[in-house]
Amino acid sequence: MVKETHIKPEIRVLGIDDSPLVSDKIMIVGAIMRGGEWLEGVLRTDITRDGFDATVRLSEMICGSKHYGQIRAVMLNGITFGGFNIVDLRELYERTRLPVIVIMREMPDMEKIKEALKNLSDPEGRYEMITRAGNIIKVQTIKRGKPIFIQAYGIEAQDAANIVQATSIHSRIPEPIRVAHIIATGVILGESKKRA
Amino acid sequence: MVKETHIKPEIRVLGIDDSPLVSDKIMIVGAIMRGGEWLEGVLRTDITRDGFDATVRLSEMICGSKHYGQIRAVMLNGITFGGFNIVDLRELYERTRLPVIVIMREMPDMEKIKEALKNLSDPEGRYEMITRAGNIIKVQTIKRGKPIFIQAYGIEAQDAANIVQATSIHSRIPEPIRVAHIIATGVILGESKKRA
């Protein structure tokens, strides 16, 4: 199902990123931001490295939040978390009833991904999950500089691109993703790394 | 030593808060914010519940950060972290050479604090550490509503008040403290609690 989204300047977006791979239990951080500017809440859950529980854990984290009713869209920093624990966009949308937007700094190299999956259980199943995430759209978030790439589920591509552009205030990466990344790496490593 | 501080709109301030007391090792989070608006980095360290290592751990966290050279002031959410692990403002200033500003939502009740310290080792030493933190100043951060209270070391009281007012954008609490609090509670409890 595809819904239209009206974008208010103060739209609440949840950005989700994982933390560095320091153990088999990987911390996931969610940053709830209002209009891409104001951090309203932080969520946390854990997933299994290279496991299959990302979609369920993320759904529980989102639906269990007191902010759930205010969140208008979920942004993911890529479609895989904690190594190759892949998020099923359709299932995440069906469980949360929220539009899902995947943010990528580069076009994914599908051949490289296929190769990496060979070292894991069920490589075909995982590859299929990745491919069914849908079309990849290029979005120019800042006037000059490199574009980013997105995938969207439960929302029109143009609406997703609008939300991404409206929340990319300090860099070409939308604030909810930039902030979730800074928190997830800072808390685990003691200091945040720059690249979202 | 007292220094004058010129307050630029994009001043970098590090806000520090502790996380809920769920074990004997308490996570401390630092949020580096530019102009009270833009989260630039997250720092993390651990201290002992009711211990005596807060000042040293905080100093190491601050001086070891790649952002150290840019930070112009340190804000603490109260003077005690992880129960009654007290920060020695003078020692923190001497180790970091950065102005220290303590943020309090209410005037501290010294009699109540004295009473609580009785259950801990070295109650007199701890009480002395708290009292030598200096004068408490009332600061009106928002036009209407309750004021907050601050203590400052290594900076003129008026300059400290100016920094506190300049960074209190979304509530009566300065953003670096509000954000450090949201991160510290969200990461430990799975969801952030509202009160900074």
TrEMBL record, chains A, B:
Q: Which family does it belong to?
A: Belongs to the UPF0215 family.
* Taxonomic source organism: Methanooceanicella nereidis
The name this protein carries in UniProt is: UPF0215 protein CUJ83_07110
According to its UniProt record, what is one Pfam family this protein matches?
A: Endo_dU
Q: Which InterPro entries match?
A: Endo_dU
